[in-house]
Amino acid sequence: MAATIAGSGSATAVLSGSKLTVTGTFDGLKSPATIVQLHKGQRGVRGPAVLDLQATKGTSGTILGTLDLNPQQIQDLQNARLYIQLHSEKAPDGNLWGWLMLQ
């Protein structure tokens, strides 16, 4: 995997009512980012995509999105069952991912 997957990133998500605002950055990818999505899965276990975010289409850049969550998605967020996954050209099944954790 080291030939296709590399990089790092960080993101912050703020929930106001049912609106989730996500901002983040990434860098060090081996190929340009293609998509970034919010997925549902238990911590450490990857799961299906539930909502789309926006990302810069480069090997470094930003992640942005404002999403309206339904009650189940809010509960999933509170239970640390939502994570961000960034895909790249050489890693179409996912290059970076990280779970959203409550502070």
Folded structure, characterized:
- The chain is mainly β and 103 residues long.
- It has one helix at 71-78, and strands spanning 8-16, 19-27, 33-40, 49-55, 61-68, 82-88, 91-99.
- It has a seven-stranded antiparallel sheet with strand order 1-2-5-4-3-6-7.
- The longest helix is centred in the C-terminal third of the chain and has 8 residues, at 71-78.
What would you say about this model in short?
By secondary structure, the chain is mainly β.
Number of helices: 1
State the strand order across the main sheet.
1-2-5-4-3-6-7
Residues in helices, as a percent range: under 10%
Mean pLDDT: 93
Provide the low-confidence segments as ranges.
none
Q: Span from first to last CA?
A: 32 Å
What general form does the structure show?
A: globular
The tally of beta strands, per DSSP, is 7
Main sheet: strands, sense, barrel = 7 strands, antiparallel
Which H/E pattern describes the elements? EEEEEHEE
Q: What is the gyration radius calculated from CA atoms?
A: 13 Å
Kindly estimate the percentage of residues that lie in beta strands according to DSSP.
Answer: over 45%
* Alpha-beta content class: mainly beta
